[in-house]
Design brief:
This protein is mainly alpha-helical and 169 residues long. The protein has helices spanning 2-24, 33-39, 41-75, 82-136, 160-167; strands at 28-31, 140-143.
C-alpha cells in the first residue's frame, strides 16, 4: 500500500512539474470587447443605423405629442360645444393609443436591432480574434472587463486595437 501511495505521489509531482513548465509557455492576450465592437467599422455602422432609427421614431412621437397638446388646448376653449368636446376627447384618446403603440413598436424594433447587431459583432469579433491568435501563436484571448473578472491586465498583452483592425478587414 505504501508503495502505491509513494508511486502515485511521485507521479503527481512529476506531472505537476511538467504542467508548471507548460503553463509558463502559454501565451495570453486580452481584448476590450466593448471597445472593439464600438470602434470597428461594422460597430460604427450599427450605431449609426440605431441613431437614425431613434431619430425617425422621435420625430413621429414628437408629432403625435404636438397633436395631443393641440387637442388639449382646444378642449380648454370655452366656445367648444359638448358634441365638439366629445369629438376632441375621442381624438385625444386615439392619439394616446397611437402614441403608446408607437413607443412600444419603437422599443421592440430598437431592441431587436441591438440584439442582431451585437450578435453579428460578437461573431465577427470571435472570428477576428481566432485569426489573429493563430497568426501570432496566442493560446488564450480573454475579455477585458470587470464583469468578465479581469479588472486589470498589463497593457502589453492588450490586443484590442489589433482585433479592431482584424475586424475591419
Amino acid at each position: 500500500m505504501k508503495k502505491v501511495i509513494f508511486g502515485l505521489l511521485v507521479f503527481l509531482l512529476a506531472l505537476s512539474g511538467s504542467f508548471a513548465k507548460d503553463i509558463r509557455n502559454v501565451k495570453i492576450a486580452v481584448v476590450d470587447v466593448q471597445k472593439a465592437m464600438l470602434e470597428s467599422k461594422e460597430g460604427k455602422k450599427a450605431k449609426k443605423e440605431m441613431e437614425q432609427k431613434i431619430s425617425y421614431y422621435k420625430k413621429q412621437i414628437d408629432n403625435l405629442q404636438k397633436k395631443y397638446e393641440e387637442i388639449d388646448k382646444q378642449l380648454q376653449s370655452p366656445v367648444l360645444s359638448e358634441a365638439g368636446k366629445k369629438k376632441k376627447l375621442e381624438e385625444k384618446k386615439k392619439i394616446e393609443e397611437k402614441l403608446r403603440n408607437l413607443q412600444l413598436q419603437a422599443a421592440q424594433e430598437l431592441n431587436k436591432m441591438k440584439i442582431e447587431a451585437e450578435k453579428k459583432l460578437v461573431e465577427k469579433l470571435k472570428k477576428a480574434a481566432e485569426r489573429y491568435a493563430k497568426r501570432h501563436g496566442i493560446d488564450i484571448i480573454l475579455a477585458k472587463s470587470p464583469m468578465a473578472g479581469i479588472v486589470y491586465a498589463n497593457p502589453t498583452i492588450d490586443i484590442t486595437e489589433q482585433i479592431i483592425k482584424e475586424m475591419n478587414k
